[in-house]
Amino acid sequence: MALNRSSTRTDITYLSRRVKPAARAETSAPATAPPSSPVSPAAVTSLSLSRSSAPTSPAPATSAATPWAGARPAAETRPTRLFPAPGIGETRLLNAQTPMIRLDRRQSAIGSLLVTGATSAAWESPERVTGAMTVDGAVSGTSIKCSGNRPLVGYMDGTAVVALRHIRELRRALFIGQSSAPLTVEIFDGGTVTLPAASGELRYILSLTAIDGVIELRAEPVPARAAELWQEFGFSMTTNAAARRQGH
Fold first, then answer.
1. Among 73, 116, 175, 216, which is most buried by a count of CB atoms within 10 Å?
2. Is the confidence at residue 75, as pLDDT, over 70?
3. How deeply is 218 buried, as exposed, middle or buried, from its count of CB atoms within 10 A (0-12, 13-18, 19+)?
4. Percent of the chain scored above 70 by pLDDT?
5. pTM across the whole model
6. Sheet strand arrangement including 118-124
7. What mean pLDDT do residues 167-193 have?
8. Considering only 8-22, 26-40, 156-170, which range has the smallest mean pLDDT?
């Protein structure tokens, strides 16, 4: 069969070259970047280095970067819950104007605290062992004994005495005197403070509270004719059997 070469088809010209028009367009594209955006050799080198190098993880934090890590404070401060209060040398009288004073740690731990004029005293330990005693020797509740079988709160020659060496074994105490006479407190260094005698319908009794080994003394106003005052302050006498249970 003879070929018909009388006419040439224009729609299949790519068959004679075996190259499609799209491929020819791709091969005809310029091999170099346009002049408006040349790439320097240094930039090419930088790009190749950034692609070839493996990513690295950030360096771990060191004590130089965080100087506080592992550091200990130069001095540890002990938190306290005590609000400011005058000392025993700042006032001579506990009354409505100055109802409370606080001893320092040294004054709270050395020697004995003496209360002159107290006709009765009541005490309570941190374990809630409670007792009371009158100046003439009558005892109710349970005594708190220190070393040498000495009472933590007791009487000596008509004066109420608190053995301060063992103050952490005492939670609180109450000292009651005659309404017509004052109460006087004295400590080892000669510091004193006085509760006045009754005025009108009121009288003052002395409340002692031990907070973390520090003594606070407060003048508590009560009716002049009130009886069984220790009950008004929540003292409930502990029997010996209850004291033994609480001690275990």
1. 175
2. no
3. middle
4. 62
5. 0.64
6. 100-102, 214-223, 202-211, 172-177, 118-124, 130-134, 139-141
7. 94
8. 26-40
Q: What are phi and psi of 51, to 5 degrees?
A: -80, -35
- For tokens 């017509």, the residue is 180
Quote the CA–CA distance of 41 and 49 in Å, as a whole number.
12
Q: Which residues contact 139 (CB under 8 A, 6 or more apart)?
A: 131, 132, 133
Here the tokens at position 224 are 């002049």
Contact status, residue 152 vs residue 160, Cβ threshold 8 Å: no
Task: Round to whole Å and give the CA distance between 152 and 173.
Answer: 10
> Nearest-5° angle of CA 213, CA 139, CA 153?
20
Token pair, residue 162, equals 């608190």
The average pLDDT across 221-227 equals 79
SS3 230: helix
Under a CB-based contact definition with an 8 Å cutoff, are residues 109 and 167 in contact? Answer: yes
Across 62-148, where does the E strand assignment appear?
100-102, 112-116, 118-124, 130-134, 139-141
* Whether the Cβ atoms of residue 217 and residue 108 lie closer than 8 Å to each other: no
